[in-house]
From TrEMBL:
The keyword Signal does not apply. It comes from Nitrincola tapanii. It is found in: Cell membrane. The chain holds residues 685 to 963 of 963 of the full protein. This is cyclic-guanylate-specific phosphodiesterase. Keywords: c-di-GMP, Cell membrane, Membrane, Transmembrane, Transmembrane helix. The keyword Membrane applies. Residues 23-277 form the EAL domain. One of its GO terms (molecular function) is cyclic-guanylate-specific phosphodiesterase activity. GO terms for cellular component: plasma membrane. One of its GO terms (biological process) is cellular response to nitric oxide.
Amino acid sequence: AKESGRNRLHFFDPTLQTQVLHKAQLEHELRHALQTNECVLFYQPQVDAQGRILGAEALIRWLHPQRGLVMPAEFIPIAEASGLILDLGHWVLEAACRQLQVWQTHPVARDWVLAINISAHQFRQNDFVESLIALTQKYAIPAERLKLELTESVLIDDIQFAIERMHYLKAAGFGFALDDFGTGYSSLAYIKQLPLDQIKIDRCFIDGLPLDSNDAAITRIIIRLAQEFNLQVIAEGVETQAQRDFLLEAACVAFQGYWFGRPMPADEFLSHALAQEGV
Ligand code: C2E
Ligand code: CA
Ligand code: CA
Ligand code: CA
């Protein structure tokens, strides 16, 4: 069987074989990386209309000893496919809570909310709720400091389960953002059933601003929708002043993107914030 397996691989495009090996190798190394602190969280500022920092989105990075900085697009899909996303997700939550504990001691950072990306698999895990609450207790941080970013992929399989779990976590104090809004299906049907705090306008709509009239229309409609449902709305991927100006004009209330700051390590994030505040 091994022989035929090998022959079969030869039958395919060699680049595919290389890709498969590369994936297996990365998965093996990622498992190791989570235990040896090669992974690190970067923090990207989220700001209000006055440019004041509201908090950050935590974005994972892998500082690979040979490959250098590996971006999540390269390893999150591998982690999802292998189930490693559960360990990775827990690692992210713990690192985030540890960071919030540090921020609690800084007057400038005390009220920041940290947004965390939660994968569908992680959200549905049996002990997700318990382990999340246990972490906030371990690090003595209020649940209100954490905002869980969910995409529609969390909702599609079992919407009733997702709604119940969200309501439970909401009652415990956690916040929710609906990530990549506008890119999935039937988002509108969910909106009124979910205990959301925020919707994130996907970067693909911000990209075309201010000139693309379709993107402009969609962006205005999403902002209006958020107003009608009493949700905060944040634009992601804001890269230019022109995009920022359009969004301000359209009454967007929160912003994230390279124009305001790139994802950065925690110490850099704090200096960035202090410089911003003029401290
Ligand atoms: P996302 O949740 O949509 O995160 C936003 C992505 O846009 C981030 O990419 C961020 O660095 C990038 N970004 C922010 N501002 C700009 C901008 O102005 N221009 C452009 N071109 N890009 C911008 P990143 O960090 O590479 O993460 C990619 C995706 O990987 C994330 O997309 C998220 O789906 C996933 N991811 C990242 N960290 C985690 C994590 O801790 N757990 C899980 N489950 N997924 C994660
Ligand atoms: Ca996100
Ligand atoms: Ca997003
Ligand atoms: Ca996106």
